[in-house]
Design brief:
mainly alpha, HTH_17, DNA binding domain-containing protein, excisionase family, DNA binding, SinI_DNA-bd
């Protein structure tokens, strides 16, 4: 059984076109791509897959309050919005940590330069060692 529908196109540069281009590029590079329906909660197994971690790690996040969930009977479900919120917080924390480390390294380098400034000649000698 074949269903023929008229082709539809999205304007180049539209959010949908950009999304599809990014998804196709990810698939070409061997990256797993998944879609998430915001109105349907996910299981801990699905969350673990989306987060790239084990199911027990997801339960630890839920038990610690870092990942919101609710019960459906005796089973836990995670609202899609809570999963996205956790991913956003994790990304922001990771970016902040990278910035803090870069600032720390810069501060250490500045302190070393202030304590023991080296001439260009001395630096060249050290590089030869």
């Amino acid at each position: 059984m074949s269903c023929s529908m008229p082709p539809t196109t999205s304007p180049q540069g539209s959010p949908l076109a950009i999304l599809l281009e990014n998804m196709l590029a990810a698939l070409r590079n061997g990256v797993d791509v998944a879609s998430l329906s915001l109105d349907r909660p996910v299981t801990p197994n699905q969350a673990a897959t989306a987060l790239g971690m084990s199911r027990p790690s997801v339960y630890k996040l839920m038990d610690s309050g870092l990942l919101k969930f609710h019960y459906v009977g005796k089973d836990r479900r995670i609202p899609a919005a809570a999963l996205i919120d956790y991913l956003d917080r994790r990304e922001r924390a990771s970016a902040q940590m990278a910035e803090d480390l870069a600032n720390r390294d810069r501060t250490i380098a500045q302190a070393v330069d202030a304590i023991a400034p080296l001439s260009a000649e001395q630096i060249a000698e050290l590089k030869e060692l």
